[in-house]
Specification:
The protein has 106 residues and is of the alpha+beta class. It has 3 helices and 6 strands.
Length: 106
């Protein structure tokens, strides 16, 4: 008898939840923080340094495929203004292993 009660309760709950529509999370309005410089490829990594600047490394790929040439380290101030564009001759996956935010913040 107890098993039937549990099954009936579970079925009732499933029926109640199945009949309600899903509510999506409203993310609201989003503002553009910054635009990557012309010729940049997609961003690989992004972090905010202790100085408040935003550090972005590029990935070396765009919608058409691999892009040859050096990767880039882009530095934006807290308002989204591009401060520096540094070419990097290292594979993208090693960017943050070789560089520290503290040394870039100087």
């Amino acid at each position: 008898m107890r098993g039937q009660w549990t099954a009936a309760t579970a079925l009732g709950l499933l029926t109640a939840f199945a009949s309600t529509s899903a509510v999506a999370f409203d993310r609201g309005h989003a503002d553009t923080f910054a635009v990557l410089p012309s010729g940049s490829t997609g961003p690989e990594g992004l972090t905010v340094g202790p100085d408040g600047n935003v550090y972005v490394t590029t990935f070396g790929f765009n919608a058409q495929g691999q892009v040859l040439g050096p990767s880039q380290l882009l530095v934006f101030d807290p308002r989204g203004k591009l401060l520096r564009n540094v070419s990097m001759q290292v594979p993208p996956r090693t960017h943050w292993g070789l560089l520290s935010i503290q040394s870039l913040a100087r």
